[in-house]
Amino acid sequence: MTLKQSALVAPDTATRPQAAEQPHRATAWPAARTTAAEAGAAARAGQAGQAGQAGLASHAGQAAQAGLAGQAGLAGQVGHAGQAAGGPLAVPLGAALGRVLAGPLLALTDLPSFDTSAMDGWAVAGTGPWTVREEGAVLAGHAPAAVLADGEAVRIATGARVPTGTTAVVRSEHAEQSEHSERAEHSARPESPEQAEYAPAAAGPFLHALREVRPGQDIRPRGQECRSGDELLPAGSVVTPAVLGLAAAAGYDALPVLARPRVEILVLGDELLTTGLPHEGLIRDALGPMLGPWLEALGAEVLATRRIGDDAEELYAAVTGSTADLLITTGGTAAGPVDHLHRVLDAAGATLLVDGVKVRPGHPMLLARLAGGAEPRHLVGLPGNPLAAVSGLLTLAEPLLAALAGAPREPHHAPGVPVQDEIQGHPHDTRLVPVVRRADRAVPLHYNGPAMLRGIAAADGLAVVPPGGARPGQALEILGLPWPTVAGDAPAQGACFT
Questions:
Q1: For residue 315, what pLDDT is reported?
Q2: Cβ atoms of residues 348 and 285 within 8 Å
Q3: Are strands 326-330 and 262-268 parallel, antiparallel or unpaired?
C-alpha cells in the first residue's frame, strides 16, 4: 500500500495550528471508564438539545402515528422515529425488550379495573349459610352475574368479576353444600296448623362456611395495585420481561423508548480472511463476527460491519463519512508501520479523550471525540488482538453506550466476588482475567492471552485484578457479560501471562 502523507489532510484542517507533541501517558483503568461514561452522557445531552430544537410532535399526532391512541401517559413524549438518535420513539411491546423508557410509565387504568375474585370458590352476600343459586358459575372474561341478594351464593372462578352485592369470596375448600339449613328451616316453619298446610318446602341447596368469613376476603378490589395516572416506573427504566407484562396489563400496545445508539464497526487489516482456514500469513477475522452481536447485546443498533485494508485514505473516508453515534475500529491503535488510526484522527480534527489505558490486555485502546456534525459522535479504537478488543469493549464502549442510551450505570457489574486461586498481576497495570463462577467463588481461567478467545468463550465474566495480583479469597470486581451465563466446570490447562 502506498501512503501519500500530504493526501491525508482534511481540507478544513490544513491550516489548523498543530499542538506541541505531548508525551504518551496512558489513563488509569477506572479513570478511563469514567471518561467514557462522561463522554456518553455529554453526547446524550447534546442529542437531547438537538431533539429539543427540532421540537417534539403534538400529543395527538404522535399518538396516531405510534398507534397509542388514548395512551396519554406516554404518547405525548414520543418523537418521530427519524429524529436524532437518543430521542424517543414508539416500538411495539414485542420489540421493546431491553430498551430504555423515554418517560415514566403511567397507569392508563385502575389495576385491577374492576373487583375480581382472587380464588376459585363462592361469591356470597351477607352472612351464611347461603342459598346456592342454580345458574352456572361466574367465569373470567364473561359478563358479570346478576346482583346477589342477601343470603345468596354463586360459583365463581379466579379472575372473574364479582357480582354486585358480593361481600366476600369463600374458597371452594373452605365451604360445603347441604340440602338443609337451620336458618332456612326456622324461617319456613309455620306458625299455625292452617299455615302448615300451605307452607312451601325449604329452598336448597345451601352453602356452609367451614371457617370464619370476613367481609372483603379473597376479593381483589378495583385499583388495589394502582389507580389510573399512577407512575408505575420512572423514566430511564430498562424494559425487562416483567415490565412488558406490566405494560400489557396496563393496556399498552407500544412503549415510548429511547432510540438505540447507532454503531458502525470498521474491521481493519490486510491479513484478515472471512472464510476458510488460515494460510500464508493470513488469519481468520474473529472480531467481525463477534463485535456486532456483542454490541447489540449492550443495547446498540449496529448499522454495518465494514472491512477496510491497511489503507489510510480509505480509513479517513470511513471515519469522516460515518453518521453513526459511535464508530468502533479494530487494530491500528499502536505505532506499527500500518497503524494509521492516530494520524487519521488527527487529520479529521478529532480530540483524543483516552489514548492508552493502564490495563492488560488492551493497553493501546483509545477513545476520541469526532469533529463536525450537528450531533456529538465518538470513536473507540480497539486493539486488534481478540481478547484485548474485548477488554476495550468493556473498558470504553460499554460505559459510553450505557450513558448514551440512558441506561443505569454499570448494569452488568457484580463487585466483591472472592477468587478461588491466586492471580498473577501486572506490576503497574490492571488486568482483566476471564473467570467462571463456582458456588460463591470466581475461578480464573487459562488461555487468557491477548490473542486468545478460548478463555472468554467459557467465562462468566472478567475479574478486575489490581496491579500486583490477587491472593486466594480476595474479593474482586467482576465485569459481567451481557448475556445469560451458566456457572460450571471449565478446563484450565495452559496458562498464558500477558
A1: 95
A2: no
A3: parallel
Measured in degrees and rounded to the nearest 5, phi and psi for residue 309 equal -70, -170
First and final C-alpha spacing in the chain: 31
Strands (E), 361-471: 366-370, 377-382, 413-418, 430-438, 441-444, 461-465
Q: Which helix (H) or strand (E) holds 36?
A: helix 29-54
Question: What are the residues facing 283 on neighbouring strands?
Answer: 272
Cα-flanking dihedrals φ and ψ of residue 349, to 5°?
75, 20
Give, as one character, the DSSP assignment of residue 7.
G
Res 481 pLDDT > 70: yes
What average pLDDT does this structure show over 439-449?
Answer: 93
Decide if 299 contacts 405 (C-beta within 8 A).
yes
Q: Where are the alpha helices (DSSP H) in 151-219?
A: 182-188, 193-198
pLDDT digits (tens, 9 = 90+) for 10-33: 434 333 444 444 445 799 999 999
Higher pLDDT, 58 or 90: 90
SS3 per residue for 302-355: EEEEEEECCCHHHHHHHHHHCCCCEEEEECCCCCCCCCCHHHHHHHCCCEEEEE
DSSP class of residue 111 equals: B
C-alpha cell at 280: 500464508
Residue showing cell 410509565: 105
Tell me how far apart the alpha carbons of residues 199 and 194 are, in angstroms, rounded to a whole number.
9
At 296, give phi and psi (nearest 5°).
-65, -40
Q: Distance (Å, rounded) from C-alpha 105 to C-alpha 329?
A: 37
Cell 482534511 -> residue:
10
Amino acid 191: pLDDT = 56
Cβ distance 167 to 124 under 8 Å?
A: yes
Q: What is the pTM of this model?
A: 0.73
Please check the confidence at residue 158 and state whether its pLDDT lies above 90.
yes
139-148, 169-178, 390-399: the lowest-pLDDT one: 139-148
pLDDT, tens digit, 9 for 90 and up, residues 110-138: 999 999 999 999 999 999 899 998 888 89
- Grid coordinates in use for 379? 470513536
